[in-house]
């Protein structure tokens, strides 16, 4: 179980419920047809014992959670750092993404987060999110 | 199939180019059940002081993967073990994303091979960097 640092404040929580239909549609969209994600019979014969979600599908939800935390500023200076995939995301289960951020103003733009299997309490993905406040929320211009 | 023997440190892949159009973003949102209007509604994006509808940042991980695989398959057993993302500016819906991937490290640990790749994603004309992705993949050896 993770030991969270002191003086932290709770951040938004995002739940998601991947299904095999979602994972198979994701495989089509991303052109990642690895049978570990799409073929239950094949996946059952592997060490995972069944299909698992793509890593980038989990990352998609993590970015949405970061958007809920930081708002549109996330798209102007967000960073995901050292994300580690420690357990598979499986179809048919429900996951929650939540994090804790330091209350100290100097580091208020940093959050430790985890994707947790709600039923088992197991952490599946962990990492750190940061918001570069110096770059964030500029007026609506977009020079290239 | 992209095999381990092809991956040497310093190797650069040819640019991967994809148009991030409304259909792609709509499909992404539909599969994941996302409802954030800044991806699909121009006025909502501008109300959020963004320069226009933005491409969901989570799509960067998918673009990065396609930038090194280049329509080749990942060998069975390949696993994404860690990931980092830096966002500098958003991609706008309708823009062409230009992604360039390269191999920055390889290492062995406990008999397994790990490949670290970096992908810079630009947009616009000429392309300017918007995001960077760095990921570590446990790459399976070639089948005998």
What tags apply to this protein structure?
heterodimer, A: 144 residues, alpha+beta, six-stranded antiparallel sheet, 6 strands, 27% strand, elongated, B: 144 residues, five-stranded antiparallel sheet
- Outline type of chain B: elongated
Q: What structural class do the secondary elements of chain A suggest?
A: alpha+beta
- The secondary structure category of chain B is alpha+beta
Query: Largest sheet of chain A at a glance?
Result: 6 strands, antiparallel
Describe it for me?
- The complex is a heterodimer of chains A (144) and B (144).
- In chain A, strands 1, 2, 3, 4, 5 and 6 form a six-stranded antiparallel beta sheet that branches.
- In chain A, β4 (95-102) and β5 form a beta hairpin.
- The termini of chain A are far apart.
- Chain A is α+β, with helices and mostly antiparallel strands and 144 residues long.
- Chain A contains five helices and six strands, in the order ββαααααββββ.
- Helices cover 28% and strands 27% of the residues of chain A.
- A five-stranded antiparallel beta sheet of chain B has the order 1-3-4-5-2.
- With 144 residues, chain B is α+β, with helices and mostly antiparallel strands.
- In chain B, β3 and β4 form a beta hairpin.
- Chain B is elongated.
- Chain B has helices at 22-32, 42-47, 59-69, and strands at 16-19, 79-87, 96-109, 112-123, 128-139.
- The mean pLDDT of chain B is 93.
- Chain B is built from three helices and five strands.
- Helices cover 19% and strands 35% of the residues of chain B.
- The interface between A and B is large, with 46 and 49 residues.
- β3 of chain A pairs antiparallel with β2 of chain B, so a sheet runs across the interface.
